[in-house]
Specification:
With 630 residues, the chain is α/β, with parallel strands linked by helices. 37% of the residues lie in helices and 17% in strands. The chain contains 17 helices and 17 strands. Strand 16 and strand 17 (606-611) form a beta hairpin. Helix 15 (525-542) runs antiparallel to helix 16.
């Protein structure tokens, strides 16, 4: 039985999310220039294309072989769905003779990856998955193995699976929705780190809420595009990339109180009409949001919501999931965010009544909570309680590292530091070593999608393998995964300064400087050295705006107001400590330090301009209140 995680120096590869088990095999293997890909047993085109992309990205030449084995076969990658009755005759397929008991575990995306060497030292890889999506996850491990080289690779067998079925993002914050470019870039990042779910419910998208019954427009203005509006072609492009990266793109509608209005019998017709328009744009899974419109206490309204949800799921099945429907047209089950998503808002008895009313809905419909509170960290106590009322596993909308209530702050540190920095998260929250009764864990990120990848990386790591999650190690690995190895050192230097609370970064150096001044022997050496390092790191990250890599440029756009303000702050502080006067900067209203955000939902969406607040606890008051006056 495959059940334990092997950790420590014995692991031949560093892979994230951390695999559940790696077993070293004798010898090493090297990839030949040409690599044959053998797709068998239900492997789809997206998985084949992913294998081709990974090999090409590492300087290898992929050749897809549909049948048969050519003479003088070079390295190969065999992709197959697990089939217990499979007969293995070809010597090249002997690699598939591995322990398959992993497929009996009650887990998700189960796969086995086996790397061995043939008689010539050439690498032969087999990835067996419970389905083609699981093989796709196995390819993510192969990609990171190849990142460590294509020659003299240690032979290994990886037995792996996810602890949580659905893992990823819910774009549900109040603020400017992500651009199509950011969304697609997130999909590609998610594919690399085994995430499979992206629910779109951008509060400030009028076609999600205010105009929920209307189709997306065919054209939008430049100003609308700047603040995250999408047109039909953009949505088509998004769903295309989602399909290529095997991310379930769930488009959610927010009909609000109309969903529980007995006087509006046409509401399901309107919702289905919108779903049909979205289906034409490539959407194959839907959500319904009725959050933030008031919690019903009337039993008749609770029952109406449950009946409407049941009827809507039935309509979807009748429309797209009938026997004989083309697989490419079928639609996966609904995701539902109810009015009471934080059960602590009401008494336990009233919460029980609310969730019991939803227990009559189809079990395949995913019901979301945020825990006892809006900002709760996923925990077994809340899961066990609400599951006992609902009668099924739950989905968790995790408001992390969401900054819609702290829009001038960034949360780019490790998980526990972010908990400490986020005003609304309980500082004593901890990460459970094993979550029970949870089928979905998706995070509601910051308005800055590229910077949110840092937290997303660690949540992907955690939701894949609960027990092996290590807070700091995961953050340490997230930085190069997000900004690239060449910029990782600079960004790690900056990350504590991009925070509002910069105490840990520079507080003690400023205190030591104050003490030296008070003693009559002013010593700014340590403080100046630190500020110069920060200034140098600012310049390096600023250069990413001219990068040939799209994700670099997108990340710079996210961090720009905080980065430029921090750069100006360090420059002024260095000049003052060195005794060199320079023009004073207006840190409150300089447009370089400002950004746009949206507030509200439905008919009440308003545009605001705010000023970034990096290093505001220590460096800013030191600069403004001390250096400028001394």
């Amino acid at each position: 039985m495959i059940s334990a995680t092997i950790l420590g120096a014995a692991e031949p590869y560093t892979i994230y999310p951390i695999p559940h088990k790696q077993v070293m095999n004798p010898g090493t293997a090297s990839f030949s220039q040409r690599v044959f890909i053998f797709p068998q047993y239900g492997i789809d085109i997206a998985t084949i294309n992913r294998a081709k992309q990974i090999l090409s990205d590492h300087g290898l030449v992929p050749v897809v072989i549909d049948a048969g084995t050519p003479n003088n076969c070079p390295s190969f990658v065999h992709l197959s769905v697990n089939n217990p009755k499979e007969k293995i005759g070809d010597e090249h397929h002997a690699v598939l003779r591995v322990d398959r008991s992993i497929f009996n575990l009650p887990k998700y995306d189960r796969y086995i990856l086996n790397l061995k060497s043939d008689s010539k030292g050439q690498a032969n890889v087999a990835i067996i998955g419970e389905d083609t999506d699981a093989v796709f996850c196995g390819l993510a491990s192969l990609e990171q193995m190849l990142d460590q080289g294509t020659t003299d690779l240690p032979c290994v067998t990886i037995y792996d699976y996810a602890d949580v079925k659905n893992r990823g993002i819910i774009e549900g914050y109040y603020g400017v929705p992500y651009t199509a470019e950011v969304t697609k870039d997130l999909f590609r990042f998610m594919a690399r780190y085994k995430m499979n779910t992206y629910m779109y419910g951008a509060k400030s998208d009028p076609y999600h809420s205010h105009y929920w019954g209307d189709p997306y427009p065919t054209t939008i203005t430049e100003d609308q595009q700047r603040i995250g509006y999408l047109n039909q072609d953009m949505m088509r492009d998004i769903t295309k990339v989602a399909s290529e990266t095997k991310v379930n793109f769930i488009w959610a509608i927010h009909p609000g109180k109309a969903f529980a209005n007995a006087e509006d019998p046409q509401v399901l017709d309107k919702i289905m009409a919108k779903f049909e328009s979205m289906h034409e744009l490539g959407v194959r899974q839907f959500g319904v949001f009725v959050d933030d419109v008031g919690v019903p206490s009337d039993h008749a309204i609770m029952k109406l919501c449950a009946d409407n949800l049941t009827a809507l799921q039935q309509r979807i099945d009748d429309k797209w999931n009938k026997k004989g429907a083309a697989a490419a047209d079928t639609v996966k089950p609904l995701h539902y965010v109810p009015q009471l998503y934080a059960h602590g808002w009401v008494s336990q008895e009233r919460a029980r009544e609310f969730y019991e009313s939803l227990s009559t809905t189809p079990e395949k419909v995913s019901i979301y909570i945020t825990g006892r509170d809006v900002w709760s960290v996923p925990n077994n106590g809340d899961l066990e309680l609400v599951s006992s009322w609902l009668g099924r596993d739950l989905s968790w909308w995790w408001n992390y590292p969401c900054n819609d209530q702290d829009p001038t702050k960034l949360f780019v540190m490790d998980t526990y530091s972010n908990f400490r920095d986020e005003t609304h998260i309980d500082n004593l929250s901890h990460i459970e070593k094993r979550l029970k009764g949870l089928n979905t864990l998706i995070i509601n990120p910051m308005q800055q999608g590229e910077l949110s990848k840092i937290a997303l990386f660690s949540v992907a790591d955690y939701s894949w393998n609960n027990a092996s999650f290590d807070n700091y190690s995961s953050w340490d690995a997230a930085i190069p995964a997000v900004v690239g190895k060449q910029h990782a050192k600079a960004f790690k230097k900056l990350a504590p300064y991009l925070r509002y609370y910069d105490n840990d970064a520079i507080g003690y150096r400023i205190d030591n400087y104050y003490k030296s001044v008070k003693s009559g022997r002013a010593n700014s050496r340590s403080l100046l050295n630190e500020l110069r390092e920060v200034s140098k790191a600012c310049q390096e990250i600023k250069d990413m705006k001219n990068s040939n890599v799209e994700s670099d440029r997108l990340l710079y756009n996210d961090v720009r107001p905080w980065l430029l303000k921090l750069e100006a702050m360090t420059s002024e502080a260095i000049a003052a400590l060195e005794g060199n006067a320079q023009p004073l900067v207006d840190y409150d209203s300089n447009p370089d330090f400002q950004f746009e955000t949206l507030g509200g939902m439905g008919e009440d969406i308003k545009l605001r301009v705010l000023t970034a607040e990096p290093s505001s606890k220590c460096l800013m008051p030191f600069l403004i209140e001390y250096l400028r006056n001394h």
